[in-house]
Amino acid sequence: MKPRQAFFDCLHRSPPALFEAALWIAAEHDRDVDVPALLKDFKALQQRVSHDLPMLPVSELGQPLLRRLNDLGFAQDDFTPLRPRAALLDKVLARKRGQPLALGLIALELARGLEIPMVGVNFPGHFLLKVPGADHLLDPCGGRRLYPNDCRELLQRQYGANMSLKAEHLVNAEPMQMLQRLSRNLRQLHLANDDYIAALIDAERVLELGNASAADYLARASLYQRLDCPNAERFDLEHALMLSDDPIQRIRLTERLGHLPPNSVVH
Questions:
Q1: What's the rounded Cα separation, in Å, for the pair 75 and 98?
Q2: 165 by DSSP, 3-state: which?
Q3: In what order do the strands lie in the sheet with 119-121?
């Protein structure tokens, strides 16, 4: 089974195998990634984390779990500029450095195995975690508690003072949403590192996961433009045009389509 097929097979399980699916994403980019071996090694990490957790009700173990991970060396990757290894889960497990989402996926899998209630939150710009029923969120990069004012400060630090905290920023993330976010992160990281083929692999996965936006089609169109594939670029620009609600963007997309050569048909 190819990595992309194995990835979707994980999503079709009940419940979806989120962590394994993320490992298959890494396997798409590196044929040497041994997913079964990584899953086996992960059990050892789970035992190490479990051994030093305090004797508390499982509903109170979310923050101690994240702090234990931090004690073991897991932290946010602050290398500049960021490399794809910050989002590829096999590399994050090996280096103990990664983006908040990658660290969050590791924490969620540990929590699942230890029966600690924990969910992901697709907070803009910085993935967060939450224990259901708690009055705060948790930063996967160390376990810091974030109350509403902290979330507001985090949001405005990343997007400016005019960005308002909304209820939609704090809702639970479904497995497919987290994997789509991971795919978008990798698409951007590969593009920033001039690996257009790898970025295209991620861009295709974003679209296959469904509910793609105009920005997602536009991102793949730009990759096709760099790879000199005008027919494929046209296809994605047309889809972006159909999905866009921005009048200015629609004008620019129409102009860009007008500059492409006529669609050629291969017999």
A1: 7
A2: coil
A3: 119-121, 128-130, 137-138, 145-146
Q: Tell whether pTM > 0.85.
A: yes
- Give pLDDT, residue 262: 81
Q: Would you state the pLDDT for residue 120?
A: 98
pLDDT for residue 203: 98
Half-sphere exposure for 241 (CA within 13 Å, toward CB) = 15
Find the helix or strand (DSSP H, E) in which 145 lies: strand 145-146
Q: Where are the domains of the chain?
A: 3-145, 212-267
Tokens, residue 88: 């590829």
Ranges in the chain, pLDDT < 70: 264-267
The predicted structure's pLDDT at residue 244: 96
**187 closest CA partner among 164, 204, 212:** 204
What is residue 119's DSSP assignment? E
Closest by alpha carbon to 205, among 22, 20, 15, 18? 22
Beta carbons of 122 and 181 less than 8 angstroms apart: yes
Name 214's Cβ contacts closer than 8 Å, sequence gap at least 6: 239, 240, 241, 243, 244, 245, 246, 249
pLDDT recorded at residue 118: 98
φ, ψ for residue 160, nearest 5 deg: 100, 160
